[in-house]
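Appendix B. Chain record.
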Amino acid sequence: MSKKTTVSGILLVLLVLATTPLLGTDNVSFLKWWLMTLVLGIGFYPAAAALFPRFHDRGWMFSKVLGIVVSGFAVFALGSFGLVPFTAPVCLITVGVLILASWIFGCFKVRVHAPEIDFLMMEEVLFFAFFLLWTYLAGFHPEAHGTEKFMDYGFMKMALAAILIITPLFGLMGTMIVNKKMAYFSDALGHSALTGIAVGVVCGIPDTNISMVIFAVVFALLLNKIGSRSTVSTDTIISVFSSCSVAIGLAILSKGGNFSKYSSLLVGDVLSITKKEIGYLVIIFIVTILFWITCFNWLNAICIHRALAKSKRIPVQLMDYVFAVLVALIVMLSIKWVGILIINALLILPAASSRNLSVNMREYHVFSIIFSVFSGVMGLILSYYTNVATGPMIVIIASVIYFVTYFFGRKWKE
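C-alpha cells predicted for this chain:
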C-alpha cells in the first residue's frame, strides 16, 4: 500500500467520524446513501473501465453516475411499461442483474495497478467530502441558495425527466450530424417548426405537435431529395428552404398581430412540459436506440465513403432518408421546451466538444452523451437559481465545455 493510499484512507476515516457532529443522528442515513453509491460504483466499475480505458482511474469518476443512470432508467422503464411491479425486491434484483452484466462485460478488460488505486482513493475522498458538504447545507442550512426548494415542485421533476430522456439523444444523434456535416440541415428543421404550426393553425388541427411533426418529416425528405439531385451547393439549398419556410410561418402566424402567443417557441420552456409530451419523448428514445444499434455501422460507412458503402450493397439513400426523418422527429418533439433559436446548438455542441477529445468512435459517443446530459442537468439547476430561461442556460454551459475542450483537446489526445 502506497503512502498516498494510506493518507487518503486516513482522511476518509476522519470524514466518516465528522458526520456525527455535523449531521447528528442523520449520519446513519447519510452513510447508507454513500455506501449505496459506493456499491453501484464498484458494481459498474468494469463497464466504466471498458468505456474509459485511457483515464488514470479507468473511469471510476463515472462509475457511480453510470450505475445510477443505468439502473434507475432500467427500473423506471420496467415499472412504467408494467413488465414488473415497482417494489424494493424487484429494484434490488434489477440492479444485481445489471451489476453482474457489468462485470461480465468488463472483467476481462480491467487491470487495476497501484497508481490507479491512488487515484481511486483520492477521488472517493473528494466525493465523500462534497457529498457531506451538500447534505449539511441542504439538511441543516436550507436557506443557503434556496437548496430546500429545488425538486420540491412537480414541474421541476417533469423537466428533469424530459432532460434525462432527450439529452442523450442529442448527444448520440449529434455525433452523426457532425460527421455528415448536417449542421445547417438540423438548423433548417428547427426553423421549419414555425411553418408546421402555421399549417396546423390554417388546417384547424388542435394539437400543433401533429402538424409540426408531419411538416418536418415532409420537409426533411424533400430537402434530402433535392439536395441529392441538385448541382447547387447543399448549403445554398438548405438556406433557401429554411428562409422560405420561416417567412411563410411568420407571415401566417403574425396575421392580425397574434404572433405574441407563439413567441415562447423561440427560446422554449421546459418547465411547461406535460406527461403526454414526456411519453412522446420516451417513444422516440426507444426507437432511436433500436435504430442506432441496428444501423450505426451502415451510417458510419456512408459517412466514411458513400461509393464504397454502395459497393457493399448498403442502402445509402434509404439510410439518408431514415436518418433525416429521425432527426426531424427528435427536433420537433423537443422544440417547444428547447426553443427554435437554440435547438441546433444542443445537437451540435456536445458532439463538437467530444470530437475535440476523442480518439475513437466509442469515446466520441460516450463523451458526447456525457457533455449533453451534464449541460442539460446543470442548465436546469442554474436556470432555477438564476431565474434565466433553461434552454439558453443549457447552451451557455455546452458552449463553455466546447471552448474548454477546444483549447485543451490537443494536450488531452497526446
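Further analysis of this model is presented in Appendix C.
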